[in-house]
Amino acid sequence: MNIDLNALSIFCMVANERNFRAAADRLGVTRSAISQTIRKLEEGMGIALVQRTTRSVSLTEAGQQLYAQVSPSIANLMQAALATSSLGGAVRGQLRLAVSTIAERFLSGPLLASFAEAYPDVQLDIIVTDEEFDIVTEQYDAGVRLGELIAQDMIAVPVSVEQRQLPVCSPAYRDRHGVPSHPADLIGHKCIGWRPRPGVAPYRWEFAENDREFAVAVQPEFTTNDMQLMIKLACAGAGITFGMEETFRPYIERGQLVPMLEDYCHSFAGFYLYYPSRRNLAPKLRAFIDHVRLPRGG
C-alpha cells in the first residue's frame, strides 16, 4: 500500500485543530481539499480515521492510534525541511511566539517594533496567553514566560531584570479601609483576583517572611483573567489587587495606585525567551534572540 506523506501531514494538522476549516486556514488550502485528502487516506487504509460533524471533527480509535504513531515523525520531517530551507542564512519567514500576558517589557511595543524594522522579511505571529501548552507540539518557535515556569529541557534566555509582585490599591480605597499590616490581613479586605480560565481557583498571592515563602488564598470580590481590568478596578477604588510591580509602576508614579506590604514582597527571576534545544537554529529565531536578549548588567 502506497502512503502519501503529504496526506499524513494534513491528517496530523486536522488532528491538532479538530476542525477542517481551521486546518485549511493553517495550510492555506480550501476546506474541500482537506476533506478530499482525508477521505482518500481513509479509503487507502480501509478504515475511518475521523468522525465528522457540522462544527468539528474527532478521531476514531484508529485515527488516535495513527496520530500517536506518525505525529512525532511528521514533526521531525517538518523540522528537517525547515532547517534545510534556512541554510541560505536569510532572516525571513514567519516567527510564531507565545508570550505571557504579564511580560510587560516584551509586550510594551518598542522591542517588537524595532525588531520588525530591522528584519522586514520576518512576520511576527504572537499569541498572548497564560495557558500552559507545549510550544513544540503547537508549532511555536519560542515562548516568553517567567523563568520558574519553563521546562528544564528548554533553552532559556533572559529578557527582563528580576521581577517582584506586590499588592496595590487606590488612594481612595486606602483612605476608606486602611491597608493591611501583614499579608494574612488581606483576608479581611476587598480583593481583585486573577485566574487563567473558568473553573480554576483564583491565583494565591505569594509573599515571603524571614526567608520563608507562603501564599495567601484571598477571597476576591472580582475575579478575571484580564490584568487591565484588574488595574481599572483597583484605580476605581474597588479593592486591592496583586501583580507585577513593573506593570503597576506607571500607575504608582502617577499616584493612581499605592503599593503595600513591600517588606513581604521579594524579588525573583524574571522573564525568559525559551525555545527547544536545537544545534541549528533558524536564522529568524537566532536574529530574534540576539535582538531581545537582556544586555549584561541590564
Brief summary:
With 298 residues, the chain is an alpha/beta fold. Helix content is 37%, strand content 22%. It has helices at 5-17, 20-27, 31-45, 61-85, 104-107, 110-118, 171-177, 227-235, 245-253, 283-292, and strands at 50-52, 57-59, 93-99, 122-128, 142-146, 154-158, 165-169, 191-194, 205-209, 212-216, 222-224, 240-244, 258-259, 271-276.
Structural class by SSE content: alpha/beta
Mean pLDDT: 88
What is the ordering of alpha helices and beta strands?
Answer: HHHEEHEHHEEEEHEEEEHEHEEH
- Order of strands across the main sheet: 4-3-5-14-6
For the record, give the distance between the C-alpha atoms at the N and C termini, rounded to a whole number.
Answer: 59 Å
Strand content: 15-25%
The tally of strands reads: 14
By DSSP (H or I, 4+ residues per run), the number of helices equals: 10
Question: How would you explain this protein's 3D organization?
Answer:
With 298 residues, the chain is an alpha/beta fold. The protein contains 10 helices and 14 strands. The protein has helices spanning 5-17, 20-27, 31-45, 61-85, 104-107, 110-118, 171-177, 227-235, 245-253, 283-292; strands at residues 50-52, 57-59, 93-99, 122-128, 142-146, 154-158, 165-169, 191-194, 205-209, 212-216, 222-224, 240-244, 258-259, 271-276. The strands form 4 sheets. It has a 5-stranded mixed beta sheet with strand order 4-3-5-14-6, with helices on one face. The chain has a 5-stranded mixed beta sheet with strand order 11-8-12-7-13. A hairpin with a 2-residue loop joins strand 9 and strand 10. Helix 1 (5-17) crosses helix 4 and helix 2 crosses helix 3 (31-45). The chain is elongated, with a radius of gyration of 24 Å.
